Amino acid sequence: MTPADDLLDIATEIAREAGALAHRRRAEGVTIAATKSALADIVTDADREVEDLIRARLSAARPADGFLGEESGAGQREAEITWVVDPIDGTVNYAYGQPAYAVSIAAVAGDPDPESWTALAGVVYCPPTGELFRAARGSGAWLGDRRLQVNADAGPAGALIGTGFGYDPATHEGTLDQIRRVMPIARDLRRGGAASLDLASVAAGRLDAYYERGLQPWDHAAGALLVREAGGVVSGSPGGRPGRRMTIAAAPGLFERLSALLDD
Ligand code: IPD
Fold it and tell me: Given ligand 1 and candidates 89, 91, 190, which is best to mutate, with the most ligand atoms within 8 Å of its CB?
């Protein structure tokens, strides 16, 4: 067992417990507790409760580690290992009872600059489907006992491409322009609503590629590791290609073509 495998075991156990709580809270009925930067940028009571649970479990298991969570922000910034957590990624789906939401937990080394982090272990757990995607650095990406591999470049046949829309109204024109640019090489586009699951889908070959501008570290720290361990390339994420704000994830050839189309 490598140290990354140990971190993965901890993340897996906590993600399952956190996912069960999210699932239970969803069944009880969820209320939107606050709208943050935009109408689509919401937080529910369950997001906070689930993050509190994950934080408590991590601090019991690994008291010296740092923490960066979507709802509660950062704690203990000088740690060797930092846990980067989105308690419920896809909160809008979750609030509306759509099944595409996930608990995303990653352990990263290096602090404090997200650009220079190295993701060591990552878990993306979707409670409604029971699917738990996991990766440890150097040990591959897995769904159950199936080792994941990104699709080869789809070439002229066209790629199934996932994307997400930034919340900031100032980016909306740019979003539409990006769609115009990628449509000629796309078989079709998808907007799934949970970045961690979009990245897991690229790793699992359910999407050929995914791109989105302006993701936060907790949206993609675990998912980007899944893609890299499944043989793909990722930009704009911890440990990804430096110098890009745009997250692009795909097999190497398709990554280059999308990069040229979507250059920042
Ligand atoms: C959001 C989702 C969405 C993406 C946004 C993210 P949240 O995360 O991943 O798909 O388009 O950029 O912020 O707010 O639901 O945790």
Answer: 89
Ligand 1 touching residue 93 (CB < 6 A): no
Ligand 1 centre from 74 Cα, in Å? 18
Q: Which ipTM score applies to this complex?
A: 0.96
Which atom, in ligand 1's list, is nearest to the CA of 89? 16
CA pair distance 230, 187, nearest whole angstrom: 22
Mean pLDDT by 10 residues, the chain (264 residues): 90 98 94 79 88 97 93 74 96 95 95 74 98 97 97 84 88 91 95 98 98 91 97 77 74 94 80
The model's pTM is: 0.94
Query: What Å distances lie between residue 165 and 5, 33, 63, 136, 175, CA to CA?
Result: 34, 22, 36, 29, 7
Residue 222 CA to its chain's centroid (Å): 5
- Is the minimum distance from the CB of 194 to ligand 1 under 6 angstroms? yes
All structural domains of the chain = 3-147 (3.30.540.10), 159-262 (3.40.190.80)
DSSP string, 117-183: -EEEEEEEEETTTTEEEEEETTS-EEETTEEP-PPPP-GGG-EEEEE---S-GGGHHHHHHHHHHHG
Dig out the tokens for 210 from the structure.
């995914």
3-state DSSP assignment of residue 33? strand
Q: Is 229 in the pocket of ligand 1 (CB under 6 A)?
A: no
For residue 219, report the distance from its CA to the centre of ligand 1, in Å: 6
Handedness of CA 75, 77, 78, 83 (dihedral sign): positive
